[in-house]
Amino acid sequence: MKVAVTGKGGVGKTTFAAILARLYAEEKRPVLAADVDPDANLGLALGFPEEELMSITPISKMKDFVNERTGVDPSGIMKFFKLTPKVDDIPDLFAKSCNGVKLLVLGTVDVAGAGCVCPEHVILKRLISHLVIMDDDVVILDMEAGLEHLGRGTAENMDQFVVVVEPGARSVQTYNKIKSLATDLGIKQVRVVANKVRNEADEEYIRSRIPEEDLLGFVHYSADVIDADRQGQSPYDFDKKAVEEIRAIKKKLEERF
Fold this sequence. Notes:
Layout: E1 2-6, H1 13-26, E2 31-36, H2 42-46, H3 50-54, H4 63-70, H5 90-94, E3 96-98, E4 101-105, H6 119-132, E5 138-143, H7 148-152, E6 160-165, H8 169-184, E7 190-197, H9 200-209, E8 215-220, H10 223-230, H11 240-256
Parallel strand pairs: 1-5, 1-6, 2-4, 2-5, 6-7, 7-8
Antiparallel strand pairs: 3-4
């Protein structure tokens, strides 16, 4: 199973991605969680110690490594570089493990627009493509907020796109834009998880705006998730209700896949 988790900033996609990864690890499945968000905090949500995370450099920021793999001319005279660099050993070289989950921090490319063809982008796109074809591993991508990754086309081969939304018009609007762009890329499986749901009115709001066949379920608002974040702990270890709700969503995700 290869899942890309996306959505508007602040909706809780990292919390969802982390708990989903921990649930697969609970089953003794090989799990690789890739953080593709420039504001990388998936590691904390997985339960990694903060001091260990501080020592991790995102792949996109490893300039010397990226240049070496893509064959960039150090002098800058030659502007050519490899479009098919070696990436299959990167998870073994740089992934860190905690609670049964391997974490790989990819980072992102700091450019405007969707047309970047630079060594960093080539490495990231090639690496994500490799992660998608890893035979037995569960791969969960915690994508950057918004739509930039879809514009660059770096995740078109994922089994499932899961858009995390909250009960609000801007969040639902982001889902509609993501689904439209995903359809243009040939991605047929675009599902929705509604997070921070407070009551029946919130549930009804989501149901009235998200097609039934796309909606995987609800994760209700919980102060335990906030407490886990304040303490730098994984919400998987703090909020059993959220864990069970996401366990049910995981089952439905697999059934629909």
